Amino acid sequence: MHVNPLPNYCSTIVPTIKILFRNDEFLVVDKLYDVRIDGDSSKGHTVLSILYNQDPNLPKPLRNVHQLDHSTSGCYCLALTKKAAGLASVAFAKRKVEKYYLAIVRGWMKDDSYIVEQPIAEVPNNRYRMCIGSKNNPGKKLK
User: How many Å apart are CA 127 and CA 141, to the nearest integer?
Assistant: First the structure.
């Protein structure tokens, strides 16, 4: 059975990123999953390449103040000025910023929400999944 490949134009379609907040200092976007923040855009779209495609008038450079993994979606904050980047980076480094994560689970949960205050570790042999740390797989400690 012969399957036709996708037409060439499919690889040139640029996704859009929803802007959640913008002022003179910061831009907060809804980062897509499986999209890198920056880097070589010839290997695939990046958050920065998509944003500059959407709005070529955005200041250059947009400054990263924290990171989200390639496979993670969610709120991502960029600084529009060098001063704002410095202030935000200090706030993240001193843990003044609260982060919340939503997990997709298999099965049914007794309650609607939980607070997990245990280390998060990578699932062995699956870099895209995380689990609660254990003695053999301690993960990262809370600071």
Answer: 18
Q: Which residue among the candidates 34, 69, 111, 112 is catalytic per the annotation?
A: 69
Dihedral angle sign, alpha carbons of residues 26, 69, 72, 48: positive
Q: How far apart are CA 93 and CA 137, in angstroms?
A: 25
Q: Where in the chain is the domain with CATH 3.30.2350.10?
A: 8-99
Q: Is 69 a catalytic residue?
A: yes
- Strand 19-22 with 26-31, pairing: antiparallel
Short-list 27, 122, 36, 22, CA closest to 73: 36
- CA separation for the pair 136, 143 (Å, rounded): 20
pTM assigned to the model = 0.70
Looking at domain 8-99, its CATH class is: alpha beta
Per-residue pLDDT of the chain (143 residues; tens, 9 = 90+): 444 443 443 456 788 999 999 999 999 999 998 888 887 777 788 899 999 999 999 999 999 888 888 878 889 999 999 999 999 989 988 989 887 777 777 888 888 888 877 888 888 888 777 788 888 888 766 55
Tokens 């379609």 belong to which residue?
A: 13
